[in-house]
Amino acid sequence: MEQGKKRIGILTSGGDCPGLNAVIRSVVSHATLGYDWEVLGIPYATQGFIDRKAISLNVHGMDVHGIDPLLSTGGTILGSINKGDTLERTQDIIDGYKELELDALVAVGGEGSLAILHDLAEKGNWNMVSVPKTIDNDVPFTERSVGFDTAVSTITDALDRLVFTAASHDRVMVVEVMGREVGHLALHAGISGGADVILIPEIPYSIDSICHQIRELRDRWGRRFAIVVVAEGAKTESGESRSYTDAFGEVRLRGIGEHIAEQIALCSHVESRVTVLGHVQRGGVPSPLDRLLGTAFGKSAVDLIAQGLYGHMVAWQNGKVVPVPLSQVFAKQVRPVDIQGDLVQTAQAMGAYIGELSKSQ
Fold it and tell me: Does residue 231 contact residue 201 with C-beta atoms inside 8 Å?
């Protein structure tokens, strides 16, 4: 174990999510109380290195009248970015790390932002450890990432609300949720919220089968409404993604929910409505599980620095935190839904249509 007082930095990168402040709180508390280290918060991820800015963090400096608010505060007090000219400013970012005289860095991010930071760390010879966060829950080698549980709860709450208006008007409610490449959010929330149809990127589907499901609910069971949950990354039957280009020229996924609703109306002659939850899923107070996970990850990340075990990510496996080499994390693609796993089988057992499984295997 390395000796001596250290100055470590922490940053949050990529899209925000509930639980990030729990990670920051844990890193600061354990580093200062457990090791007597100095902790600097790097604002707006790599932009902080470019601007040569840092915020001194300590346990009591984050209190408000003696009350610690970070566990129950969403978002991130350090700010975050998920775009920019990182590649063009690589040397500037590397120099910023050196000028802040950091001994190590805790990087909190999703699969994409961590890959960029890992590349910077290798080029700049940084001492870096990583914490996975993403509401998509798609980072390899960890069963859970910070933010996922709260997002599932938010979507489930929305489904609980929408089911009453669906039942009142005999409508099909189509709910579009996040999930660019994977369907963990749609699957978990769909099961928790009792969805009748769950569409995810990993499994192709048939509009005829969806309409059959809706007709079956009406004709056999007398239920004249239905709830459909679809991940934004699910494609049309012909394999096309639905997206739009924003004012800054960025291509954004959106519209598959509208497409599904239109197709359902055409083939089943049932009135349908679409709700796109969007960034509502990123907001709110972190759940107890995300607070617990963020705290455990932050503490373990500091311990990895104390052990000199750099180039690793903390991961949740079998009920405990374990270190995983970042080289292994980025050697794999994002973690998809196991289409033969227990959750998919559970959704089917509960009567939900989840796609044409035989065609995806």
Answer: yes
Q: How sure is the predictor about 225, in pLDDT bands with cuts at 50, 70 and 90?
A: very high
Contact 278, 155 (CB under 8 A): no
Contact of 9 with 140, CB cutoff 8 Å: no
Q: How far apart are CA 102 and CA 299, in angstroms?
A: 19
pLDDT in tens, 188-222: 999 999 999 999 999 999 999 999 999 999 999 99
Inter-residue contact 263 to 235 (CB < 8 Å): no
**Greater pLDDT, 247 or 285:** 285
Query: What is d(CA 215, CA 50) in angstroms, rounded to the nearest whole number?
Result: 58
Catalytic one among 63, 103, 136, 160?
Answer: 136
H and E: helices and strands count for the chain:
13, 13
Cβ 235 vs Cβ 256: under 8 Å: yes
Residues comprising the chain, all counted: 361
pLDDT at 230 over 90: yes
User: Residue 155: CA atoms inside 13 Å, Cβ hemisphere, count?
Assistant: 37
CB 177 within 8 A of CB 188: no
pLDDT band per the 50, 70, 90 thresholds, residue 33 = very high
- Write out the two tokens for 23: 């990670």
What whole-number distance in Å separates Cα of residue 16 and Cα of residue 117?
16
136 catalytically annotated:
yes
pLDDT digits 0-9 by tens, 338-351: 999 999 999 999 99
What phi-psi label fits residue 340: left (phi over 0), alpha (psi between -120 and 50 degrees) or beta?
Answer: alpha
